[in-house]
Structure formats: structure tokens, C-alpha cells
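Lab manual, section 2.4: Encoding a predicted structure.

Procedure: take the sequence of the chain (356 residues), apply the prediction step described in section 2.3, and record the output as C-alpha cells. A sample record is shown.
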Amino acid sequence: MTAILKRVAVVAAVAATQLTAVAVKFDYPFPLDANGAYTANVMREYNAGAGTTKPVVGGATGPGVSLEYSLLNSVDGAGEKTQWNGGTANDPTKYATVQYTLADTYLIKEFNHSYLGGNTTPTSYQISVSTTGFGAMTPVVSGGTPGTNQWDVLTTPVAAKYIEYRWQGTNPSYQYIMLQEFRAYADGANLPAITTTAGFDVVAMRASGPVTATKVSGNWQYDSENNIIDLDQFTYLRGAGGGDALVVVDLGKTHAVQAFSLGFYQGQTWGSGARIELSEDGASYTSVFSQTTSLGSAKEVYLASPVDARYVRLTNYGGSNGALSDFQVFGVAIPEPASASLLLLSAAGLLRPRRG
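Recorded output:
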């Protein structure tokens, strides 16, 4: 853990000779995943007591364009879509924008925007950023018709607190533009310190190498279990009925887990609910959430206090065939023992924060 921590800030109370840590915050230089992608999606963060932090979302539509589904759907972590009706197909004059105000300024290296299908994409798009406001935007990405799961990697990371996505022109064969999710990923090499008590999606970050998923019971369909951790809204995992279906996600190392998000494809559900259990060793599990009524859309689960865990076991009660697209786990990696000692020294003011 020491190798990936740039700086540690500790809020502590000292009484006589006893040190009591009140809150520990870690600064992440976000790592790359196994494919070299920058996988810290700064659009969704969980901080203790504040819930899931999403950007403030606004936007505008051009003449003859109407917004039919909420702009917030583009950052819900699920398969729900933001939809515009352009009135007619193949109209290059139609356009709309979405404006995202982030919680902080980040160095962004990569953008991802996904669409419901090939005929729901615009004929061109542009992404602009700013650190001061939407009145002073700088274009950083522009292109023709995007792919249904479009990734745009910048040559040089850009500082951004304000992000504007603009589409231009309705599809030659369809009048509707359907944006499913918009993501912005922090640069893994040059990121300045970001302090958080619980952090970003551990599954997406892959901070300790590839996160893995394993089916541990029957009653699943042929879908790959990796579909719930592949950051792709168009892949999913479905039960086969006939009994509970279980899958285990290995986070790679122990984390202080605080929240979860289950993103279902296009409003689908698990009709009999679900259970989430946590474990440090993969053998002994503790249940932290159970719901026996229908569960779906973008379900968010918050724990009252963090639980140390490496393994997350997810049970689909009854093996429902609803399609789960994404399973997100919000948390922060637990320091190794040597790093924990440094935390206490830092809290006591005996060490100066190391920057690098």
C-alpha cells in the first residue's frame, strides 16, 4: 500500500499520551487496470455520511429537440438511458448538450460514452472541459459517429471540474439519440492528491490488479460472471431460475467497504431480491444487506459503518433472469501494517506528508 499512497491526511484527537484517530483519508494516484486503461470513474464517488456523490447535471436542447428521459440517467451506473427526440432522422441541424459539474477538479485522461444501439448514436459529438465554468470551455475531444461503447483517450490529461458533452445531428436511420452512460476517468500517472474517506468504485479501479468474479452455485444462465465487472453496459449476468444463484467478487485485497450499486439493464429486476455478504478470507461471510422484494434499476446500498472485506458474495434469490449489467463496490484499500504505523506517526505530527 505504501507504494501507491502519495500522501496521508489524518484527523486525530490527542488526549495525554493516547492517540485516537477520528477519520483517516487516503490520497489515490489512480492505477491502471490490466489493459492499461484509466479506470477511476470520477463521476461516481461514495463518501461516508454523504452517500453516492454524482455531478450536478444540466443541459440544453436545440430547436426541434425534446428531452424524453432524465439527464441523470447518464450517470446512474445502470442501463437506464437519457433520450432525446430529434423530430426527424438524418437532420444535421439538431443538437443537445449535457453539462456535468464535478465535486472537485480532476486530471482527466479518458472519456467513455455508451449508447443503446448503433442507430441511436448521433452523427458527431464534442466533449469540452473547464476548471472555471461553462462560459469558458475548451474542446478536448471531437469526432464523427461514435461507437455504441465509445472510448476517447487523451494524449495529455486535462484538468476539469466542468465537462460538457454535445451531440450534433440525428442518426441517418432514427430520430432518437439514446445516451446510456457518460464516464470520465482520472489519469493514473499525474493525478494530484484527492482525499476521500471511502472512495471510488473498487471494481472499476482494479487497484490491486484484476478484480475477478466467480460463480459459486448453479442456477445461472450461460452469461459470463465477468459481465458484471467489465464496465460494459451491454453485457450482463442472468439467473436461470430454480433456486438461488451466487457469485463471488474478489477485490484483490482487503478494503474498507462502505457501499454498493447494482445496475440493471434497461429497467430489469431480480424479482425475489438479493443478499450481499462480505468476507476477509473467502470462507466466513457476514450478511450486510438482504432484500426479498423486487430489486432493480440503479439500486444503491449504504452500510452504516465500513466493513473490512476482500470478498463480496452476491446472491440472486430464486435465480431471477433479470439482467444485472454492473456491480459496483465503493471502498478504500486497507493499508499494510507498515503503512498503518506511518498513519499513526503522521497523525501525531511526527512525520511530514510525503509528496511525489
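Check your result against the sample. Residues 1-38, 338-356 have pLDDT under 50 and may be disordered.
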